Amino acid sequence: MLSLLLWPLSSYAESFAAQIRSAKLIEAADGYNISAQIDYQLSPTAREALQKGIPLAWESLIKISSSGWLWDTTIYSQKLAYILRFNALLNQYEVQNPRGEEEMFLSLNAALNYMAGLPDAPSIDKHLLSHGGNYRLAVKTDFNREFLPVPLRPLAYLDAQWFLSSDWFVCPIQK
Amino acid sequence: MVSIQRLVCMPYSKIKLPASVSIIILFGFVLLSLQLMSSATQESSQLGEMYSALLVINTLGSIILFGLVAVNAYSLVRELQKKAAGSRLTTRMVSLFVLLALAPAAIVFYFSVQFLHQGIDSWFNVEIDRAMDDALELSQSSLAQRMNWHIKQTRQMAAQLQDKSESMIALEIGALWNDSGALEIAVFSNQGHILASSSANPSEILPHLPDEQIWLQLRQNQQYFAYDPSDKDEMLARVILPIQRDQSRYLQVLNPVPVRVTDLADSIEFAFTRYQEMTFLRDSLKTSFSLILLLVLLLSMLAAIWVAFISIRNIVAPVKELVKGTQAVADGDYLQQLPVTNQDDLGFLVESFNQMTRRIARSRDETRSAGLEVENQRAYLETILANLTAGVISFDAAFTIRTANQAAYRILHIPVSHFVGQNLATLAGKHVELADMLATIQHLLERADDIWEQRIVFLGPNGRQELLCRGTPLFMQDGSRTGAVVVFDDVTDLIQAQKNAAWGEVARRLAHEIKNPLTPIQLSAERLQHKLAKELNDSSAEFLQRATRTIVQQVEAMKQMVDDFSEYARPSKKQVEKINLIDLIQEILALYAPTGIIFTTAFPTTHVIVEVDAVSIRQVLHNLIKNALEATSTQCQIDVKISKVLRNTVDYVELGLYDYGCGLNAEQIETIFEPYVTTKSKGTGLGLAIVKKIVEEHGGAIWVDKSYNSGAGFVMQLPVYEFGKS
């Protein structure tokens, strides 16, 4: 019983959480583009599940908030869903982007690299950020356990092998 | 009472859901929740998204139910520790229910899990594994072979276009497309600019250009070939090869894969993926199904146990009320009436209990009134017994004293508390002076089978006492002895009065029959002396003189004796007055000072007022002192002591006179106060009899102190008016 209770904690020693290396806004002609670098780390169990045909889903969250006196106000929020699955016949990795389009990749790294840059993030309206304001960009990627097959879900909430979500990455935006 | 209870309970029962409905609703919720969760495990179910929430809800439900069961169990344990009414029956019923419900459920659960695991395991075996792998490999080989053919064909087309100008390529590419049967042929520069293209679909102006990923691989490998899924659920074989050796131009050929091949490949891929997924989820499936089964078991069992607690409490409630009611009846509360909530067997039992308590209460009231009547009778009898002059003592079968009245104490001079619970032998041990009398009564009680009567004489603290005892043995209806009653009366005074009367009669007769003839006898003797003295010679005259003198002297003595006796027998005429007894004693002792008697006095006070006839008491003291003087030598010593005693709530002054003479033996002590009883050669024997008569006429008593052994000791008690106040 004790080992059952401590099981998630013992597995937690080795973390497989995604890490957001960088995130920033890049000014473009029609607005701002988001440039991010997310380091997805698949645990052996998650990697095995993927190889066995189980699709894995992440939701990347993008928030821009303005600092206020008492609390911050979210002025922009975007959710980008990515689904990664393995095609055994073609021996390729398929990424379904937020628009529902499927991209095929010959290697897992290529597929993860595609998702890492948030290439499908829409550009942000230039007028959303006023000059001189204090803004913060927050990026996070959540592993969607509810997308897993039903029998795997309870375990995914307890086993650190399935703790693949990242923490919030927050950086200030100076205008 | 019952109707009132029903009226009180009516509104609450109307607004409260019946327990059976609540139980059905609870089980409905449990079943619905479990059914939803079971449905959610189905792959195709719309409830799949709710699976985790349902799992949490059911787990929470289990925890809540477990908490409810735990609270109920804890409450039951507390009731057991307090030995509350009905707690043991509830525990027994709940334990039985849990045992009966849990055992089959656990067995079903165990075998269900076993069957489930075996069923899941049966889905997988090595042959299917190998078949799936082989099918996939076959598909992959087929596609690879097709891809190799497309590469070869593309390489030939690229060779034809080699070293040709862009315009020539644009002219020839149509012919190539016609010959190849490809879906689309395109030539583009290494910068991605389209140089020429030809497509089967004239609506598509622009060819399917490679994306960044393809470009990346193309730059790395100088060639690219792969199957791409198209938008129309078709598969395309994309082959890109360089045309020029300097890799400034690339040829891309898109070949369609036949629909049948695509379908077959998709089918194999889907089956393989599905099988792989199931293989991976094998343990998770077991765990998940086991978890659901466990939740089903837990929820069902906990709900059933909780409902069992409620139901059993409802069932036991009347029994609990009955136990409380019985305890109340055992404690004497016969007005206990229990509410009849149900018209079932328990309701009938409760109604019977109420009838029983009503009857008991009625019987109790009747018994109480009868008891009161008996108690009044007993008190009346006790009052009569207490006011009897005769002593009454009752004994049980073992001759232990059960009751004794105040008169017994007064006669025997033993406190009542010493009587009850004692037997006569024990009482005799504590009161030695009564030992003979008590032994006699004990003997009579043991021997007598019928009413007996006997006079018993004993020497009490106040001297000789004579009791007239009557004993009656008590028998049960079956003839067994249950005890005895002894009634005794102190007839000492009565006997004394009879004796005094007899002596008075004797004195009167003596005076009449003896004293009257004495004077003629005396005169006749004196006349004989006077007449014959002159006629007789000297010797005869002297004889006559001696004889007549003797006659005269004896007649005088007889007269004196008759006078003394008359005085003893004559009723006294007392002149009662309050005097200081100490002064009187001092005065009398002073008269004896010249005789050389040594008086040792011990007076705690000089003020002892008694209401007596001073002349009579003076005579008493003279008689006692003279008596002591005659019993001892001339130089004698007499101790005089005064003290105060309380007898029967009356204060007495106790005067003791102790000499150092020869003392009295037991027989003398018993008869010393009788008339004509004397130890002296001279004397009428009336001195102490007169003393006793005078003392008793004053309401006092006199006796010989038997504990004094240095001589004779007389103790006299007189009622005292004042002792030592002034």
What features would you describe in this structure?
The complex is a heterodimer of chains A (175) and B (726). With 175 residues, chain A is α+β, with helices and mostly antiparallel strands. Chain A has one domain (14-174). Chain A contains 4 helices and 8 strands. Chain A has helices at residues 2-11, 44-51, 108-116, 153-156, and strands spanning 19-27, 32-39, 56-66, 73-87, 92-96, 102-105, 134-143, 169-174. Chain A is globular and about 55 Å long. Mean pLDDT of chain A is 85; it is low at 1-13. Chain B is rod-shaped. Chain B is an alpha+beta fold and 726 residues long. In chain B, a hairpin with a 4-residue loop joins strand 1 and strand 2 (194-199). Chain B folds into 5 domains: 16-122 and 281-330, no CATH class; 139-272, Beta-Lactamase (2-Layer Sandwich), CATH 3.30.450; 388-490, 2-Layer Sandwich (Beta-Lactamase); 497-569; 576-723, 2-Layer Sandwich (Heat Shock Protein 90). In chain B, helix 3 (51-81) packs parallel to helix 9 (282-330) and helix 4 packs antiparallel against helix 9. The chains are: A alpha+beta (175), B alpha+beta (726).
